[in-house]
Amino acid sequence: MSWNRKHLLDIESLTVEEILTVLDTARAFKAVGERAIKKVPALRGKTVVNLFVEPSTRTRTSFELSEQRLSADIINFNTEASSLKKGETLKDTARNLEALNVDFIVIRHSASGAPHFLSRVLHASVINAGDGAHEHPTQALLDAFTIREKKGRIEGLNVTILGDILYSRVARSDIWALTKLGAKVTLCGPTTLVPRVFEQMGCRVTHNVEDAIREADVINLLRIQHERQRKSMFPGLNEYTSLFGLTKARLALTKPDAMIMHPGPINRGVEIDSEIADSSRSVILEQVTNGLAVRMAVLFLVNGGKGPQEVAPQ
Ligand code: CP
């Protein structure tokens, strides 16, 4: 187990050993979260800025609670009330925050590459909380953690990612993480949103939903990312649901233990039937719970922690 990185920018550049170090460290932090006292002093005296320049519910609150549990001081940057609105650049904004002796910047931004850019111009550690359609590394790590926890392994599993792959940073990070860990990844959705070029990432591509879900051990659904689509990629939501939505009829075609995942936010009745989202087959809220332990692990590791062996013993 080892970790020597100052930043977490993507999954693409991580080794299998580094991914497993995060997952094992997260498992130790999940155990800490089940104790009466859930706080540890790992980041005491350190300051974290949550620089979310794009909306977020799960990732932002999960990072904030992770930072609190690690005893960090926290600045939640309010984009709408900031001088970004007066034309200040991202670089100047970040360098001014760093001038306050900030140690970590957690950034979500609509521009792909924004976290990589900041990592080159700042001294602080940078953690990518989602950049454009590029990557969402902590989502992939919590997805991998959840699959391993529920299925006992990742290697050899059939994982289907169904939906808008083209505009999805979750899809890209999940593909990197799951293929590195030995899963067989199938991508499915409309031809306009699931081009065959993704085969170059080691995935199977199909545009037939029944073919995609029949043998799947895990089905990870993605919403249509309207905010990133510059033109209409399919005729309408009703057609999307009828061709690719996970309906009860389609669920009946899947293996009885096929697990349903979704990074959220979900669009009920579009990519997923509302009852399926709330059913025992769905682990959507468990993914959110696991995100806390995974983000604690990431912050702990980029702060110099080496692995699970260094997480506070009981
Ligand atoms: N999964 C995810 O990134 O959700 P948020 O956009 O709410 O953070």
Structural topology:
Blueprint (H helix, E strand, L loop, with lengths): L15 H17 L14 E6 L5 H12 L3 E4 L13 H9 L5 E6 L4 H8 L3 E7 L5 H15 L6 E5 L6 H12 L3 E5 L15 E3 L2 H5 L4 E4 L15 H8 L3 H4 L7 E3 L12 H4 L6 H19 L12
Parallel strand pairs: 1-2, 1-3, 3-4, 5-6, 5-8, 6-7, 8-9
The protein binds phosphoric acid mono(formamide)ester.
Structural summary, described in words:
The chain is an alpha/beta fold. It has two domains: 16-135 and 291-303, Rossmann fold; 137-288, Rossmann fold, CATH 3.40.50.1370. It has helices at residues 16-32, 58-69, 90-98, 114-121, 137-151, 169-180, 209-213, 237-244, 248-251, 274-277, 284-302; strands spanning 47-52, 73-76, 104-109, 125-131, 158-162, 184-188, 204-206, 218-221, 259-261. Strands 7-6-5-8-9 form a five-stranded parallel beta sheet. Strands 2-1-3-4 form a four-stranded parallel beta sheet, sandwiched between helices. Helix 6 links the parallel strand 5 and strand 6. Helix 1 (16-32) packs across helix 5 (137-151), helix 1 packs across helix 11 (284-302) and helix 5 (137-151) crosses helix 6 (169-180). It is globular and about 55 Å long. The model has no long low-confidence stretch (mean pLDDT 95). Bound molecules: phosphoric acid mono(formamide)ester (CP). Phosphoric acid mono(formamide)ester (CP) is lined by residues 56-59, 130, 136, 139, 263-265.
Q: Which architecture name of the largest domain does CATH use? A: 3-Layer(aba) Sandwich
The hetero molecules present are: phosphoric acid mono(formamide)ester
For the termini, the CA-CA separation is 21 Å
Q: How much of the sequence is in beta strands?
A: 5-15%
The low-pLDDT segments are none
- The strand order across the widest sheet is 7-6-5-8-9
Gross morphology is globular
Secondary-structure element order, as H and E?
A: HEHEHEHEHEHEEHEHHEHH
CATH fold-level assignment of the largest domain = Rossmann fold
Q: Give the overall pLDDT as a whole number.
A: 95
Compute the CA-based radius of gyration.
19 Å
Number of domains: 2
